[in-house]
Amino acid sequence: KQDLELVSVSKRYGRTTAVDAINYHFKSESYTCLLGPSGCGKSSTLRMIAGHESVSDGAILLAGRNISNLPPAQRGTAMMFQNYALFPHLSVLDNVAFSLKMKGVDTVKRHAQAREMLDLVDLTDLAERLPDQLSGGQQQRVALARALITRPQVLLLDEPLSALDPFLRVRMRAELRKLQKELGISFIHVTHGQDEALALADEIIVMNNAVIEQAGPARDVFNSP
Ligand code: ADP
Ligand code: ADP
């Protein structure tokens, strides 16, 4: 079982407690949305899981293994950012293959894997373009492919749809959900939008003031008083 567990996880920045001893058990192969007002600790939680931020207290376990102190690339997690953070001077293919290059995978192998990922997100024909020759929705798919090429057990998405226009946003929701099912991995998706969470999630976590206020199956969370 590839379950992810947060055990009394806290994050402090100086005197600010951004995340206050939260506990949560993410089921494997589930789509979880993390909701809550700005500043409640959503991004800090995601960044601690990804390893882009250290935990101040507590532990993060993936498949029973404590990953809290591992570097991001060794955790079995991958993160897709709000602004996509693509390298402007690299082709789509090289952007997707980048992490494999860092690992020393040879050109032929990493390009083959990158093409496989581009197929997965329907960008087969755009491999040689530069990021600024793509639409917002296409850039977002490149960022997805780039995160997925590391074969994570858990994909972390920080407001992945917020830069898209409303039409694309709704379409990408469906694509994200489909991808999660196909890959059979867990997605943890931070969003401001209740409608987005309800459309996507198996489970919803509502954070407020650094703690988990409510959590459970999507329907239960929104139907409770
Ligand atoms: P959210 O993602 O829900 O908007 P964040 O996790 O970004 O919340 O932030 C939670 C709290 O921690 C906020 O009060 C924010 O100002 C603070 N915070 C976040 N990152 C830092 C940081 N690098 N240094 C200091 N304070 C931070
Ligand atoms: P968002 O609001 O989009 O969730 P933020 O704007 O809170 O994200 O965070 C963007 C970056 O700024 C992060 O790297 C975060 O650590 C940093 N940051 C956020 N709040 C603070 C803060 N109060 N002091 C210092 N850095 C912060």
TrEMBL record:
GO CC terms in record: ATP-binding cassette (ABC) transporter complex
BP-aspect Gene Ontology terms: quaternary ammonium group transport
Keywords: ATP-binding, Nucleotide-binding, Transport
The keyword Transport belongs to this UniProt entry's keyword annotation: yes
Residue ranges occupied by any ABC transporter domain in the UniProt entry: 4-225
UniProt GO MF annotations: ATP binding; ATP hydrolysis activity; transmembrane transporter activity
Protein name: Putative spermidine/putrescine transport system ATP-binding protein
Organism, scientific name: Yoonia rosea
Parent-protein residues present: 3 to 227 of 326
